[in-house]
Amino acid sequence: xxxxxxxxxxxxxxxxxxxxxxxxxxxxxxxxxxxxxxxxxxxxxxxxxxxxxxxxxxxxxxxxxxxxxxxxxxxxxxxxxxxxxxxxxxxxxxxxxxxxxxxxxxxxxxxxxxxxxxxxxxxxxxxxxxxxxxxxxxxxxxxxxxxxxxxxxxxxxxxxxxxxxxxxxxxxxxxxxxxxxxxxxxxxxxxxxxxxxxxxxxxxxxxxxxxxxxxxxxxxxxxxxxxxxxxxxxxxxxxxxxxxxxxxxxxxxxxxxxxxxxxxxxxxxxxxxxxxxxxxxxxxxxxxxxxxxxxxxxxxxxxxxxxxxxxxxxxxxxxxxxxxxxxxxxxxxxxxxxxxxxxxxxxxxxxxxxxxxxxxxxxxxxxxxxxxxxxxxxxxxxxxxxxxxxxxxxxxxxxxxxxxx
Amino acid sequence: xxxxxxxxxxxxxxxxxxxxxxxxxxxxxxxxxxxxxxxxxxxxxxxxxxxxxxxxxxxxxxxxxxxxxxxxxxxxxxxxxxxxxxxxxxxxxxxxxxxxxxxxxxxxxxxxxxxxxxxxxxxxxxxxxxxxxxxxxxxxxxxxxxxxxxxxxxxxxxxxxxxxxxxxxxxxxxxxxxxxxxxxxxxxxxxxxxxxxxxxxxxxxxxxxxxxxxxxxxxxxxxxxxxxxxxxxxxxxxxxxxxxxxxxxxxxxxxxxxxxxxxxxxxxxxxxxxxxxxxxxxxxxxxxxxxxxxxxxxxxxxxxxxxxxx
Amino acid sequence: xxxxxxxxxxxxxxxxxxxxxxxxxxxxxxxxxxxxxxxxxxxxxxxxxxxxxxxxxxxxxxxxxxxxxxxxxxxxxxxxxxxxxxxxxxxxxxxxxxxxxxxxxxxxxxxxxxxxxxxxxxxxxxxxxxxxxxxxxxxxxxxxxxxxxxxxxxxxxxxxxxxxxxxxxxxxxxxxxxxxxxxxxxxxxxxxxxxxxxxxxxxxxxxxxxxxxxxxxxxxxxxxxxxxxxxxxxxxxxxxxxxxxxxxxxxxxxxxxxxxxxxxxxxxx
Lengths: 405, 310, 269
Known about the structure:
By secondary structure, chain A is mainly alpha-helical. Chain A has helices at 2-8, 14-39, 45-51, 53-66, 74-98, 103-128, 138-141, 149-168, 170-178, 180-185, 190-212, 217-229, 235-259, 265-283, 289-313, 321-329, 341-363, 367-370, 379-382, 385-395.
């Protein structure tokens, strides 16, 4: 706990502080960049990109060793991973466009086959020389243990650049993500902006390899935007809140991981993001599970009450047991289906509104207004009091308000 | 092809073949339903499923692991549906949220618990270890008739054989339901078929196949088994029956060639050590898919609105 | 207290409703997607041996009504009977033709393969599909003029041909009630004629047909009865008396231009 607090307050050493800041920046860039991908409905393309980095890491290592260098040079490995990630992306697009396979099959094929090739290369590396492959497995699930100072700086700088690029490109990318046709009509090159989105996603993936690992980096691109979507309907807000959620996940996850170095970093960061998501799924005010359950229940009650009252106005029997139980419980009918005083009063109001709608639909043959004649929308919501008074005048007697009962 | 082959290669090849076929069969329907990535999700949630099963029972017995994996798959499907509907989130993103979160939980649970005495670790879960499933008691082909030697066959072989047989039987039994609900779900419901249960059953069958195959090839290469053979098969034919037959052929080819290349390929190049068999199986299945994409007779979309094929 | 209380005051003990033996009867059917009703409290009873058009503007819930009646989508409230029986007891008597756009025509199967799906309920899960079944399927394809295309992959068929295959599948079910969701949407004139001929023939055999229909210009020529729907039931009855300008206006609001209405050879109100 103490070491966690220390890490949280950037007091756990220079490296850990840099990693924490880097993770926060990376999380922000991933959340924001992921939003564009998510709005383009291509979230899982990033999964193919992420898994396609593995053969690049292996090849880069082999090339670096062959050139006489240290195979663990992070810049070299990341450059290699970017190359195969890009090839993987091209493969996905080619299969989806040029064959009859759908994009999801292409994604699954690319991610698993590239990963398989990567595994083969890792076993090749194991045979090259003993011990030198150490650390490559860290790219699978992320690891901050034993991270070099230069690596931490690289992650922090890379994260900073990714955030900057997201900010610079936010307008064209939002436009393309929301309405590609409109963007094209306004003179944007949709194809190039799409490539920019994918490049940003790839940059985030590559920067995050060491920290989160290639199996789970996709979570940082997907979970924050989906979480943010539960809280807001506005695009700009989704982008920035997804960024903020990603930053919090990255920072908290890195801090927890710094205090428990044995644990892989990736899963911890992902679980922090997932916890934020779970909370939103359950309790978000408009779209959460709790709100949805309550809303659906209320809606069902409204429908059944209304249908029951309509049956009363038409002097028809109430057939559905649930409707009858509901009206009885509310004191509107007796258990045998006969209306009580209160029930008749409400039925009368329903009948009057139905009359008013009839007149309204006759006068206003305007789809926008009469389209709201769906049985549930109160007429007072659609027409002004004087308009309703006019309907009542046309209906004629009995006048609703005047005169004692 | 003597005693050494029986000892070290026969059982891994058999396990690889059975695992590939068990995954490819449900994979056909997943690919046709545009749910290929459900295979992705399932193979990732197998890990938390078996870790929880291990923590609850304390053993790595087959039954609890299968139940754990199937349970995790059902949980994942329910969560994906809930997120899709409540948040009005596209299926890909919903899947991405669920399987990464569950996988992360599985990794963490695994790292936290003491699994040093059982064969269960994260790298193994990701990459598999087909080569280790050898039959040491075998002395040659005649051992196939020797009850003592047969009793020492790796457990995984029996497990995957049973699972493969069950998957084949279920596919045959529910063939018509699967076909009709995959092609036209609305019509199938109009006929009164339980399409929801059919879809869930398919996912559970895939999960059981995944957990049995997982031992041998790991969770990510299982995805290649689900997707590559059926996808390649789709490009070879326009009939479901033939597609499934092609997919089984491709699955068997991938498993056999993958194992042979991994074990003997490096020797051909003068290297001494074998490379990962599971990785090579995925690589071969990818090569088959690539060939099908380039030369498959039905690789292009045809008919209304499509460019005429060549 | 308002004086129009009298409206419901004299309602005594409601009489129990007699079972409706109509091919398809719905009472109080409500379906919602989210918090807006797509169909609200609709009562409708389709006449036996007649062709009924279900018409209404876009988003009026026409397809939803059919799907909910068949249990393809869940309903919020309401009861459905098929020939007086609950839906699950009467599945064998219904044939449903979904919208053509609702399926993936890239699916690996042939025209006759689709028609044979219409027999799956009859042959069960493992019952053998015999030569006789294939002959039946081929005969159904022949009735829609598609016998020569039996072995064609369905993705290679034109839109109209695909619709005919769907109709042939429904014919293979040998049902008493045929429910079709926009069978004429996006098909060529020849197909439209072929389909309507088959449907009229079914009607003449005493079967009942109901179609979700878009083209107001053909309602009079094709159908005997019409159900106007716009979330709620607007009107229902024989075309001669119900297909009126008044009902059209009520269903479509101001969406139909007056000139358009003039061209529809409406019944005089």
